[in-house]
Amino acid sequence: MDSFSSVPSGSGSPQFSTEELMDKVKAQLAQAYAQEFLETVTGKCFEKCITKPGSSLSGSESSCVSRCVDRYIEATGIIGRALFNAPR
């Protein structure tokens, strides 16, 4: 059962206020976004930087992954600012 299934049986009224429900939705969306972000960054940076998978990263692979993640975070920030600060 998920956190949205909290209407007591037979009561007919929600247990959460609209504000509480919105807070829960926002938290779940933020968690989903963070998970998707990590999966995307991991996949793209691994593909770009890890040429010979092994038991550890070489110095150049480690540097490449670090730079790749930094650039991806930077690009995501630029896109987010452009989307959310754009005139409507």
End-to-end separation in angstroms reads 39 Å
Largest sheet: none
Q: Helix/strand/pairing class, anyone?
A: mainly alpha
Rg over alpha carbons: 20 Å
Order of helices and strands: HH
Stretches with pLDDT under 50, minimum 5 residues: none
Bin the strand percentage: under 5%
Count of helices?
2
Q: What characteristic shape results from the CA principal axes?
A: elongated
What's the average pLDDT?
Answer: 84
Annotation, overall tally of beta strands: 0
**Helical content, roughly?**
55-70%
Protein name: Mitochondrial import inner membrane translocase subunit Tim13
Organism: Melia azedarach (Chinaberry tree)
Keyword list:
single chain, mainly alpha, 0% strand, elongated
Q: What would you note in describing this structure?
A:
This protein is mainly α and 88 residues long. The protein has two helices and no strands. The chain has helices at residues 18-49, 59-84. Helix 1 (18-49) runs antiparallel to helix 2. The longest helix is centred in the middle third of the chain and has 32 residues, at 18-49. The two termini are 39 Å apart. The mean pLDDT is 84.
